Amino acid sequence: MAEKNEFTDINGKAILLDCQNYSSFCREFTVSSPKVSLCKVIVCTCSVWLFAYAVFFVTENTAVLSSAIIITLVGMMMHIHLVKVEHETLLIIGSLGVQLSTSYASGRESTTFIEMSRIKDIVINEAVYMQSIIYYLCILIKDSGDPNGIASVVPLFQSSKPRLNCLVQVYKSCQAIIAQTR
What we know:
alpha+beta; PIG-H; single chain; Phosphatidylinositol N-acetylglucosaminyltransferase subunit H conserved domain-containing protein; PIGH-H_dom
């Protein structure tokens, strides 16, 4: 059963949470960000190129135009390949573990798997960001030396940064699966 809900991120931009229930032990959560705005890309590119043309007009140096074109094209490619995230996915399987996937606008994907035996808990944490307090979902990894200790914290949905109301929905579903496996 698929369930789609619209939420906002910490900046007020619309994001989409897609919940897939495969079984009582397996759920997938996908947070999707808006696509790259073609209008913004055109405005930025035209602004840089018009500025470069104005500098060329004054200096009569063709290297200014060539470098402006190269810089904007390389900048756009790097933004699409390294920065712009289309969606982030959390797949939790009660008997196996948690798989985290990030898909970028260029099609590149980054995937991490954490075994259930290494997971201490999944919690909502808070942090001070700029001049406000934000909430984020994270996985607490067990410390192998200390049974009550935490070795590391793995934040979830780092790029989309959903608000608390979205995180609570994901948190409750994850806790239900973790409770069944223990």
